[in-house]
Write a structure and sequence with these properties.
Elements: H1 3-27, H2 33-56
Helix pairs in contact: 1-2
């Protein structure tokens, strides 16, 4: 079991959830724009770091 690849997958999924939540709030014109901006930035960081972990981790069979 490759821990880095699993952690990268979890980070990617959390990033996607954060980006979707921020996008949904922006589309519905939520009044809490600062909170949505924080969710969007953290979601983007999680997404990019998760993709980087999955992409750069080599398979060990």
């Amino acid at each position: 079991m490759n821990v880095k690849r699993t952690f990268g997958t979890i980070l990617t999924i959390l990033g996607i959830i954060g980006l979707i939540y921020a996008g949904y709030g922006f589309v519905n014109h939520s009044q809490n724009t600062r909170g949505l901006l924080v969710y969007g930035i953290i979601g983007l960081i999680f997404f990019v770091s998760g993709i980087g972990l999955v992409k750069n981790t080599k398979d060990e069979s």
